[in-house]
Amino acid sequence: MNITVKSFLLVFLICNASHAATWFVGIDNNECHFSDIQAAIDASSSGDEIRIASSGSPYINAFALPFQITHSLSIVGGYETCSDANNDIENNTMPEISSGDLTMDAFVVDNGGVPAEYSFENLVVSNSDTGILLLAVNATFSLSNVHFSENNMGMNSTTTSGIDVNVDNSLFEANSDGAILCVSGDSSFNLTNSEIKNHHISSATGVSALTFLAGCDVNIEYSVIQENSFPGNGGALNLQGGSSVNLTHVLFKNNQADSDLNGSGTGGALYANDNVNIEARATCFENNLASRGGAMALYGGSTITARRDVDNTGCHQYKGNTAQFSGGVIYMEGTSTTANLVDPIITENRANSAVVGDLEVGADLTLTNALITSNGDNGSNNFNDLNLFESGVQGQGGSLELQYSTIADNLVTGVTFNNGLFSSVRVSSSIISESNGNIYQAADPSVGIFECLIAHEDQSYNGVPGTILVADPLFENRTNGNYRLSSVSPAIDFCYQPQSLAGINTDYEADSRGVDHPEVTDNLGPYDLGFDAFDHLRLFRNGFNLCEI
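Now predict its structure.
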């Protein structure tokens, strides 16, 4: 070979290496390079793209083994034929990938420790043991419009570390052992615009539909998580081991822990233990069920801060959740276990006791700008509906703080606040207007502090002198569920701002608090009570919709 030919070949190899190749898999015409996905993977190089025609679906490895991927690679569907794939003609078809046997995985990805990037798009992955088994380290994964259906497990990363997984516009449905399992430190999963539904795990030794352990961090946005169940803790989402979690515009609906009804499963939608930190924006919990904590259960120093979105939009609602024992909405247990719920709408929840919340063994719950209404049903239909909140009743020591909130028209068979041993309840600048029943009962020793209230009674507790009024708060339209203050409400310009509420400057609708209304004679100051301060300009606003999902 002369020097000219050698030089040409060297230049060709360098150029060819710098441009990713595209391979076509299908059975329809001679433009298909392969009919088997594994053959295309084996022929490809790092950074190549494999386009799969739907005409050959379903694709099952000819060697009855998982499709093995080691180097950076993109696997893309969305083309009817190889000719369409070659001509960039997409028709949104999704080829089905399967191992052909529920005892084998569909894809196994192992980069051998070499940093790599993987992409999956427009695929159905079904009828396998695990849809995608991640054995890679220091790798990134991008999934778009991938449907994991009727596998044992959708995605599994039990032996990896240092991976980042981004899932968008995807569906996890009816995978018998769960949707996603991550047991890996220094890893993250980001799910957006996706749905996780119909995972009904039968074994209590299994995992929830979404399980993130050992510090695997999670971000879920604009997604629906519904109709999942598990005999153990966390009907839909189980978080443990210091994970950091962000939830934004997420709906948890009709999920169930304790699905075998043996009384051990807590957190109907969400369970967190061992120093998990959760930040939630515009996230709603509807019709979830557990033994304790119908919507959620927190343990072991875990925390949640939940509110509406940064622009004060979106729904932050807890509706129709139930607990067979206690904590229709939330059950909390353990020192440094805390929940801070801002602007929540809490309605139609049920439990045998602690219809809204149960706080035990040093747990702390703070509610700000909360509307709490229509919870309980006077003990009908197999629920006792005993007490709205309980602190330290089962396990000494719990702390509840309710501030700038409205409690009205609940149907519980006990009291609003039941304070157990070494527990505390503090209620400030709020309205408690029930048809009957005591507001407070307490064991000794415990602490109850009540300041700046309009309430339906004042005999069951002692408040700061001069700051409690027994009166009708005169809501705008109580019959139709509008609990804002009418123009003649005695809660307008009722009190000073208690020191404990310094820094809370806006109400549920983001209106400023402490606005003095000159047409109203102040009681003790210009601060209105309840979740929504009076605003004389609201007559010019559109209709008031508390929560849109």
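The CA atoms of residues 376 and 508 lie 23 Å apart.
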